[in-house]
Amino acid sequence: MQQENEPQSERSQGGPANWSPSRLSSLAVVAMVLACLPCPPVSLLGAVLGLMALSRIKQSNGSMTGVRLARISIVVGVAMSLISVILLSLFQSHVERGQEEGISKAVHTFVVQSMNNNAAGALAYWDLQGHPITVEQVEDFGQDVAKRFGSFKSLRVGKINPAADMSLLKAGLDAWLIFEFDSGTRNGSGSFLLVPKMGTFTLGVRIRGLNIDDPEGAVSIPPKPEPVNTNATASEPVES
Question: What is the pLDDT of residues 109-164, one digit of tens each?
């Protein structure tokens, strides 16, 4: 009878009959998955979850495993966050440099071609679908620029901002421009549309509006409407 009661006593005291194997921490697994994603907030969250998993595993008294996995998720999460930030910064610099080069090429070519009375060459860089202009307007713009400022030497692109009317289907930019002419430096501005280039993963630039500041009045294309004189009085009718 004593021998028969011994196994029952062991089971009641948590002996080998109640033993269960340790299980892998699910939080450590989730932490590792998130840590490997190349998105700084997500990978950093993976590192934080790895710290939480490591703490829970140590407090489980051996019922959970995954210490190494949790530690790896912490290291990978921090490293992936730093690498992602660096890569995103480099990509942003590349995009901004491409936008600046595209704006510079479009504006420089448009101004030169319009001053040379080559409207077709100038219109190749204009957004004709969204902001149509005429050949006469291009020729008048080129003649006005040449008359006021002389020969066009160079162009610098200043600060670039997203356009106010920018949307998911229409990416636009506004830029501050610095023109160099024989007569000196002139500030200006421009509005631009980003369009995909065929066969490449880059975006081209089309001009939507161009403005060159001048004390005598800005030179703009499309031309700005003449201000309405609200002080003008209606002429008196002529008596018959």
Answer: 999 999 999 999 999 999 999 899 999 999 999 999 999 999 999 999 999 998 88
Write out pLDDT tens, residues 18-72.
Answer: 555 678 999 999 999 999 998 999 999 999 999 999 999 999 888 889 999 999 9
Number of domains in the chain: 1
Three-state secondary structure of 112-126: HHHHCCCHHHHHCCE
Residue 194 pairs in a beta bridge with 205
Report the distance separating Cα 181 and Cα 226, nearest Å. 26
- 134-142, Cβ contacts within 8 angstroms, sequence gap of 24 or more: 137/221, 137/222, 137/223, 138/114, 138/221, 139/114, 140/223, 141/114, 141/210, 141/219, 141/221, 141/223, 142/111, 142/113, 142/114, 142/115, 142/116, 142/117
Cβ atoms of 194 and 204 closer than 8 Å: yes
In this structure, which amino acid lies at residue 185?
Answer: T
What pTM did the predictor assign? Answer: 0.71
**19 within domain boundaries:** no
State phi, psi for 234 to the nearest 5 degrees: -70, 140
Q: Which domain holds residue 160?
A: 94-221
Extract the tokens encoding 88.
């995103």
Structure tokens given for 220 = 């703009």
Express the helix, strand and coil content of the chain in percent, nearest 5 each. 45, 20, 30
The region, left, alpha or beta by phi > 0 then psi within -120 to 50, assigned to residue 71 is alpha
Indicate whether 101 belongs to any domain: yes
